Amino acid sequence: MFISQNFDAGNIEVIACDDPSSIRLQIRNDAHSDFYQWFYFRLSGVRGTRCHLEILNAAGAAYPPGFSDYRVTYSYDRQNWRRHPTTLRDGILHIDFTPDQDAVYFAYFAPYSMERHHDLIARSLLSPRCHHTLLGQTLDGQDLDLLKITLPGHGKARKQCWIIARQHPGETMAEWWMEGCLEALLDPERTQSASLLELCDLYLVPNMNPDGSRRGHLRTNAAGRNLNREWADPSLAASPEVYLVKQAMQATGVDFLLDVHGDESLPYCFIAGTEGLIDWSEADQASLDFYRNRLAALNPDFQTEHGYPPKPRGEANLTMSTGQIASIYRCLAMTLEMPFKDTTATPDPQFGWSPLRCKALAHSCLEALETHLRRQGQAI
Predict the structure, then answer these.
(1) Range of the domain at 344
(2) pTM of the predicted model, to two decimals?
(3) Residues near 91 by Cβ (< 8 Å), separated by ≥ 6?
(4) Which of 107, 125, 156 is the last residue of a domain?
(5) What's the first-to-final CA gap in the chain, in angstroms?
(6) Residue of 171, 179, 264, 337 marked active site
């Protein structure tokens, strides 16, 4: 029997692994940080053997309620990820599992590796609609990729819309969402995408945090910085990812921003706005409500009843991407949250919230963006 984690995004520490009935593990902290919750490891050598795994430090994780009513994801081929029950008892996450194969992988959510990221970038660039800019490099020397999606030869002035994902690297559902977004935008047979691209150019950063992604972090980059608290004053020394993206935004302007995330605790898909801005207006509220209501009408997995409570006027956090960008460009800027668990209203007993559902939600978000832009044009 052996537990391994020395691969892209792997994270676990082995405390005891001599007895299949008492495998004791703990999650490793993000580097230079107290954050932890993401885990990803392989169990091998116990085919057909009932195993009891314990993650001992679940109670001290960044979001302990995230392990309540949680089902772990597992896979034999790292392509298909299914759910398996867990129990949180006395601050320890318990997993009882009997592998059908010689090796099985467990993860907090379906992983999205840096190799898959590079495949996504390369595959997207086969489309004439897609153009690549290397914004710079991270602290670990990885590339920070920006994709511009536009209709070839289209000279008409269009809105400049930005979508960024995976500021928090353990929120892998954000890059699964991005994969679905790119597949829809670059499909030449999808008329809705062509219609959207008549209205705007799209700038996509599929992975804002390559270093944290490869290192198996939950929330921070190589320097231990939470990137979504760096937008007021980013630096090349500590948060080059935000510094470089913010610089690129300054060159294009921003008419719309969607920042794609995952929430550990809440079993819903929802959107958080920037109501806490000092100059938040009735028109701003109407735009936010329109987009959210349209998305709820398009996709049964999205809802508007549950989410983060809006901040009071004047209390917006300008260190976050949406607050900072909305305050600079006076645009609609929103955070999309998806669950690590499952949606309570539309549960899937086998897969829970899954990569396929992330991708389908991306398609709906693009449709909602088109109607939002058309509404804006009519208002003008």
Answers:
(1) 114-379
(2) 0.98
(3) 58, 59, 60, 64
(4) 107
(5) 66
(6) 337
